[in-house]
Amino acid sequence: MTKPAIELDRVDFLGRLSVANRRRLLLGSTRAVYPAGTLAIRPGGPRVVFLIDSGLARAYWTIPDGRQAAVAFYRPQEIVISNTFLDRPPWTFVQTITDSTLTLLDPDNVRALAEHEVQVAVAMATNLSLRVRDAFRLITVRSLGSIRERLAYDLLTRTSQSQLVAGRLEVRATQTQLADSIGSSREVLSRALRDLRAAGIVETAPGLVRVLNPQQLVAIVSCFVT
User: Fold this and answer.
1) Which of 46, 86, 96, 222 could form a Cys-Cys staple with 100, CB 3.0–4.6 A?
2) pTM of the complete model
3) pLDDT, mean of residues 7-30
4) What are the residue ranges of helices labelled H in 79-146?
5) For the chain, where are the alpha helices, taking DSSP H only?
């Protein structure tokens, strides 16, 4: 296994388009600020397509008992497409993890451009292929990643779920509970948590972990590669 020196390439969606196609894509668009913890997309909701200008979001699946699993993380310059824009969509939610500025696009305009402009269709296909790659990576991190990577993923999932309920990126769990969750020992987990704390990514108290820098946790997870 090798580790890249920098994060794997992200998708600058607009950067893949000509000036003319960027202008066409942005026709009828509006800009909005979504506070941290907002559900920007939910199954059965309206069709939504947006570009992330600033901030951080995650896509996740959930099951009836309330457990959640992140399947993607979105950062600036990426495009996010709602389930209802696709045929036979998955049951996916998209949540803003930090205060995020979004450019909301006209779904009908985006679809028409993708159908008639090859460059836009290629950009959309590239985006979707990288979403699949990222989903595979997150699955692999959960089972084969290092302790640091598995802990980063676990904290992102737990604290994002807490944010939806309590409005805070924090998890109330003992180190033993966190260790059991990622398949490690309390001693090893404690060292990994101490490193995250020293880097200013989290702060801890007995039975509590609060995430200060979710972007850095996402970077840890996203740098996983086999």
Assistant:
1) 96
2) 0.83
3) 85
4) 107-116, 118-144
5) 19-25, 107-116, 118-144, 147-166, 175-182, 186-198, 214-222
